[in-house]
Design a protein that fits this description.
- This protein is an alpha/beta fold.
- Helices cover about 45% and strands about 15% of the residues.
- The protein is built from 14 helices and 10 strands.
- Strands 1, 2, 3, 4, 5, 6, 7, 8, 9 and 10 form a 10-stranded mixed sheet that branches.
- The termini are far apart.
- It binds fe (ii) ion.
Length: about 350
Amino acid sequence: MSGWMSSAVALGLLASSGVSASAEEVLNIYTSREPGLIKPILDEFTKETGVKVNTIFLSNGLEERVRSEGQNSPADVILTVDIGRLQAAKDYGVTQPVKSAALEKVIPAAYRDPEGHWYGVSMRARVVYASKDRVKQDKITYEELANPKWKGKVCIRSGQHLYNISLFAAVIAHKGEAKAEEWLKGLKANLAKKPSGGDREQAKDILAGVCDIGIGNTYYVSLMRNGKDEEQKKWGEAINVILPTFEGGGTHVNISGLALAKYAPNKANAEKFMEYMVSDDAQHLHAEANSEYPVKQGIKIHPTIASFGELKADTVAIAEIAKLRKKASELVDKVGFDQ
Ligand SMILES: [Fe+2]
């Protein structure tokens, strides 16, 4: 039987399955990842371990859902994107720490919670989309985005979107709050239009000549160029990706990651799955399917992502960035970024 069910059906089955010593081994994953993209990984895990995987897919409100289910939550593992959401899960108290030598060996300390509440399994970089026609430079710093040379030429989605909040939090980590505020004002002064749309729309606006550079995540470029939508292909082809760096630092990355649910009914299977996710096979399958960077060294990268050049990820720990997100959100309001 397929592990892919609507959440209502899955919950019904879980509720009626009861618990007995002879019950088949199961694992319940709550995820915001596209089911079709992670299915090959879950199938492989089942093949290797015999553990049947049920998934509940919720693109939004996943952490809230686990919280509202409380002690009766069937969730074993939470698999989601962005530190904002992983940290929210921890802050809601719906996770528990995992201590695993296997996870600690593979995942650099910068990409996991010091207390073991969440672990990054792949990374996405927040980069510059640059017009192929109008931008000749192939290097840029995040600092330069606030330089008046780009006045009226920059496009970006809402400053309050969680991807931008994490980027701005990284700016605070590097520059301190006062300089970050100055930078944010400079960036706002360079905008071609009010922040709007998603990351893909910034590429669309570049093609349309509205702006010369946009800010977006790496995987969207792969989704646009390799997807079925002919319009989006044109957006993706209109831009070059420049991996920006901080002065004296690297490129801002965020993570997709895993957490063990606080009341996980199948804890041993959950830990087995978390460790499976850092195996070479899973690292490759997961990063390739989502056009992300594997956290494990030496794993092959999706060709579109590899074509952007070598990623030198910034070394500020994701947990530090998480702590500065609230400050970043306040700065966005303070400078009227979205107005
Ligand atoms: Fe996204």
